[in-house]
Amino acid sequence: MAKNPNKIKNGSMTATVIIYIILALLALICLYPVWYVIIISFSRPIAARTLDVFLIPKGFYTGSYTQLFKDDQMWVTYGNTLIYASVCVVGMLITSAMAAYPLTSPYLFAKKVWVFFILIPMYFSGGLIPQFIVMSKLGMYNTRWAILVPGIVSMWYIILVRTYFSTIPEDLRESARIDGANNYQILLNVYIPTSKPIMAVIAIYTLVAQWNSWYAASIYLIDQSLQPLQLYLRRKLVLAEKLATESMKGGGTGDGQQQLELQLLSADQLKYTMIVFSTLPMMLAYPFAQKYFVKGVMVGSLKG
Amino acid sequence: MSTAAVPKKKMSKQRKLMLLKDNIELYSLFIPAFVVIAIYCYAPLFGYVIAFQDYMPGASFFGRNIKWVGFKHFIDFYEGPFFKRLMVNTIWLSFLNLVWGFWVPIVFALLLNEVNILGYKKFIQTASYLPYFISMVVMCGMLISFLNPNGLINKLIVALGGEAKAWRNMPDVFPEIYVLSNIWKGFGFNSILYISVITSIDTSMYESARLDGANRFQQAMHITIPSIVPTIAIMLIMAVGSLLHANTDFILLMYVPATYSKADVIGTYIYRQLTESAGKSFSFTTAVGLIQSVINFLLVVISNAISDKLTGAGLF
């Protein structure tokens, strides 16, 4: 970096400029692919066909979105994802707080046993096939429960909340007990209100994980009407199934110009439209959620 | 928790009742998590016994008519055609990821630390998190499209004087695609820990170094880097501990039969067996999974022990 270290005490201008440029390039690599997908999705089909749109959309066209919105499968899976995500977020918050509280209480019998009960599966998991057999035997195969039941408990978050709870002064618990509060009341009125930051962390991690997950669903849900959005996307983007909207293209109504553009709408542009629309909630939320992500990493790095 | 110790001797009857009531309440709170973990994590652990049986779908794990076969499936796997390919690919892909992916977040955090304009710093950091929020399916969808002969990546290669190719079907570039995609998706998020450690360094150390005439490069070499070395050590050891965790998610979405020779790993093999074999090879596949879990567990335990010795900051 600085070639003449003793001459300039606080770092040279060249080094600064180089660092700023490297970082700008890294940011560009992170942002540009997404930007490229966005501008193609909004370009006129004739220009987007060859994928040669690089800086701003060529023309402005929303027909690709109208086409996408006609696909019922997309809405069904979008709705499923909303169900899975919201139930799992609420469930995760409730079970994490409920399980973490006893583990911080000085009155719990055999506390060590239960801490180990939580820790062991984090290091040694039952394999995929045994898991699959158990779920099938319980009749959860190809039902929403296959996603919801495992999705509402996480050993990791229980430990995370326990770590947070144990920083709350013991005096608070004791004085509440003297006032005659039972454990449920103490958890609800003392511990949870003081733990909003960690609850926010868990809510956001769970939301992102559920929104983006596809693996478990691809194993347990064969019924397309139960599948989450990501499996719809996998069918269209990865397995390259023929797009339903594509085959509908001929049937649209409108004047000649619109018809022509619809005919030119390429599979790639439709795929990019799909990417933008499905990722939109994450894109809008993440700049606001990032401080909780940072917090989660920091709390998580403390000794459990 | 040693505060509010419960006196063991001479407990009054009232005290005992109180403690009983406490425990009823506490255990009732623990039940939901207990049930789910017991079903979803512990029952499958017992399910590993089918690795030592010839399990038929629908049977129970411990029954009268079960045929126990000992280590037959393990030996079959070891002697079978897939053992070498799966082991080599799993370890090689994880190793490449470790070698190339590990230092990028560290360098990024160090570079970011040199930025004094707060708005610029914030912008770069926010941009670096973006890929983390993009789902694996969407990332792979974009990648597949970009790697097409007329896709963005090939356009860039052609513009730089190269030749457009169907990269996704070429087994030899799969490791590169794998590593670069993983770095793209994770480096911003993985740098968070380093950035927060760097921010917590006492600024007076920099001030006194500056008084002693240290320039910025020297400050980075003698203050910043030594301060994050313990974190780096822990992260490195943990990364070694997960050496057998190739990114199954990504590979399942990206690989095609043409690239299986370089891309097929233990996780993807098990997935294919489960989704395509209709239960015929459950016992065999479970044996494969058990081997992976045991090696993983040993790696984690060993790396934790080392981490504990070196820094006193193990996970256990």
Concise overview:
The complex is a heterodimer of chains A (304) and B (316). Chain A is built from 16 helices and no strands. The radius of gyration of chain A is 26 Å and the shape is globular.
Which terms summarize this structure?
heterodimer; A: 304 residues; disordered N terminus; B: 316 residues; mainly alpha; 14 helices
3D structure, described in words:
The complex is a heterodimer of chains A (304) and B (316). Chain A has 16 helices and no strands. By secondary structure, chain A is mostly helical. Chain A has two domains: 13-70 and 243-301, no CATH class; 72-220, MetI-like fold (Orthogonal Bundle), CATH 1.10.3720. Chain A starts with 12 loop residues before the first helix and ends with a helix. Chain B has 316 residues and is mostly helical. Helix content of chain B is 71%, strand content 0%. Chain B starts with 12 loop residues before the first helix and ends in a 5-residue tail after the last helix. At the A-B interface, helix 1, helix 4, helix 5, helix 6 and helix 9 of A face helix 1, helix 4, helix 5, helix 6 and helix 8 of B.
Number of domains of chain A: 2
| Strand elements of chain A, count | 0
| Run of helices and strands of chain B | HHHHHHHHHHHHHH
Q: Give the largest interface.
A: A-B, 105 and 96 residues
How many alpha or pi helices of chain B?
14
Shape of chain A: globular
Distance between the termini of chain A: 40 Å
Strand content of chain A: under 5%
CATH topology of the largest domain in chain A: MetI-like fold
Topology:
The complex is a heterodimer of chains A (304) and B (316).
Chain A: H1 13-42, H2 45-48, H3 63-69, H4 72-104, H5 111-123, H6 128-137, H7 145-151, H8 155-165, H9 170-178, H10 183-194, H11 196-212, H12 215-220, H13 229-238, H14 244-247, H15 256-264, H16 267-301
Helix pairs in contact in A: 1-16, 3-16, 4-7, 4-8, 4-11, 4-13, 5-8, 11-16, 13-16
Chain B: H1 13-47, H2 72-79, H3 82-101, H4 103-113, H5 118-133, H6 136-147, H7 152-159, H8 174-199, H9 203-211, H10 216-241, H11 248-254, H12 260-263, H13 266-276, H14 282-311
Helix pairs in contact in B: 2-14, 3-8, 4-8, 5-8, 6-11, 8-10, 10-14, 11-13, 13-14
